[in-house]
Amino acid sequence: MHDVTYRDRAAYLPFADALVVADLHVGRAEASNVEFPLGEEADLGERLAALVDAFDPAEVVFAGDLLHRFDGATVRAAEGVSDLVAVCRERGARPVVVRGNHDTALETAWDGDVHGEYALTDDPRTVVCHGHVAPEADASLYVVGHVHPAITIESVRRPCYLYGEGVHRGADVLVLPAFTRLAAGVPVEGLSGEKSGSPLVTDVDAFRPVVYDEDAGEVLSFPPLGEFRRML
């Protein structure tokens, strides 16, 4: 298992000095005509700033679905993306953008490079992609989003990570929860490979759920779902 630090729906990879977040879905509140209690833009920006301050990464990788709307960014959503980029640059971190399935018109909000997949390191070979299509590059670790995993424990649904060892072409796969708190999440206890929507998550039972407990400030790692489902 690769060295990963879990925090607030994000992952810091110390061997790459990179923070990875996925599925921010900027503009979701506006598109849904729903207002998040703290405001979507402020919530995303403040939480990202706290993570960058905590880890001081060289890079922040947005692993797809930076935008919510398929047809392009509104003025407000484009400003939200600009604010997130500014959070990174003001703290000395380079923003890297990977395209997700929602990001069909990403260029309406971002004028930099957009990657289909992004290689963080060669040793270990680590590739970040959104996860909606199979990556072309070989790796020993793939870091993806797209699935929006969550787990229900004691009647409380919590965002979770999924970590599978050797599950895709012999490589490990780390699935991140959606960074936006407007996404309810897909309960992994009822998830199957057909329903995951990702070619990297075909044997869900082989993945180990990982939960970051914000209140306790600790990481809870559970057995693979194939063993753990009956306990839920």
TrEMBL record:
Protein name per Swiss-Prot or TrEMBL: Metallophosphoesterase family protein
InterPro entries: Calcineurin-like_PHP (IPR004843), Metallo-depent_PP-like (IPR029052), Pesterase_MJ0037-like (IPR024173)
Transmembrane segments: none
UniProt organism field: Halogeometricum salsisoli
A Pfam family this chain is assigned to: Metallophos
Domain Calcineurin-like phosphoesterase: residue ranges: 19-131
